[in-house]
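writing this on my phone so excuse typos. first protein, seq and then structure
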Amino acid sequence: YIILSMTEGLSDLSALRYAYLNPSDMSPYENGIIALLMRYITLSLSGFGIFSLYKLLKQDFMEVPFWLKIVFDIFISLVLLVWISSEMVVWMDIYHNAQSSKLAMSILWGVFALLLISYGFWRNAKHIRLMAISLFSLTLIKLFFYDIADMSTIAKTLIFIILGILLLITSFLYNKFNGITAKDHENE
């Protein structure tokens, strides 16, 4: 259900958003506020499904291999990234700010990567930290090869300053906590 809601479901929810924002168009969907609320009902059901799966994997009678826990963590992180990215696009579209969505998406991905690194240190999960660094790398590649072409000079400066600050914070966290987690592994 979760994968279906992320693929086909987000496409249908995008059509509902379009019907909500363009009520004069002939659409097979209802044009009222229910078109927008259906998005949050779907996200709530998907969130409940993920939470149920998480609780199931944490049960004492379940002997879950370590690699499955890693796959689940990566899956959850990717689902959250897709959800918040989709949500940002929706609200940028509702407020008619679609031109700055590239800038906002890069900042959002950078902040999400910083949160993943923090969570990875808190849970002592190296795979989450590596995924966060990969997301930072992907964000920078997207910024250099896709975003820069259409941005004004002020927007370019702003995005580079914000991502630079996020990378400095990440570097600080890595230098401060990486030695602590390495010592924890040596003591075990």
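second protein below, same order as before
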Amino acid sequence: PHTVEVDGRRVTARHIVIATGGVPVRPGFPGAEHCLVSDDLFSLPRRPDRVVLLGGGYIACEFAAILHGLGAKVHQIYRGHLFLRGFDDDIREALAEEMRAAGIDLRFDCDVVRVEKVHDGFIVHTTDGRTLEADAVFAAIGRRPNIAGLGLEAAGVRVTDRGAIMVDEAGATSLPHVYALGDVTDRLNLTPVATAQGHALADTLFGARPRTVSLENVPTGVFTLPPIGAVGLTEAAAAKRGPVDVYLARFRPLRHAITGRDRKTLMKLVVDRRTQRVLGAHMLGEDAPEIIQGIAIALVMGATKQDFDRTIGVHPSAAEEFVTMREKRPDPLAEAAE
């Protein structure tokens, strides 16, 4: 009890915090041993010219953008209908359009059957009957809690079927003196969330200021090209709670009227129809993560659409669109009723 062993040395403390993070999941198809994971990108001796990338989450989409930006020919394969599950559908679809327009080969509803090593690289066989030649195959199919070898079961720390440590709102495990935070709990796997949980736990245990961290209205960014910024509920999630108003704007940023680049920005607000509280803000476009950080403060404070409307925009900027959107998107259910 109250003791951990590290490299043969035992350390005893009143409180133990498990914050061991996550590790990449490796695929199980034939030839999976030839696949790299996200950790391997940073130690490659040279940039691969042809890349096959498996997965549809943050890491897969960001790596597709990075490798494409470095000049590689990228094929991204995802077994689902559309990548970035959990993000707003309009944003997901718009990103797919932009990535395809940039030259990234996206293959949805597709999976890998096997990877074959050949003299000058690899042959990737897919479920649609096609083959792809690659210099590198990256598996970014998810991450799992990093609990191997910790002896949690013997100690009495309960975990889920996925291997995530079970915790309450304060981060306490099934043992009263053992806590867990961050990705090892598999709740909201974002670095700033783990940092905030660590601060809250320190305040609770040692600062005489007990508090918890809310997992609602946590902003996030996906650093693709273009990037995504999002905070709050998606349209689909909000609609399950009741009627919503949706404001949507798609435009080419003003500066690209000069550069001539065909880059699009999409912004979306999801508003509770009854209270007019803004439930979600979503953006695809340049500087989206920077912009959404400020919008997140408004959502945490409970801002309404009228609060957004009263705010003067910064001109000329893309961000001003969040406070100038006035036209609601037609409600398909209301139209169907008519």
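The longest helix spans residues 191-206. thats all i got for now
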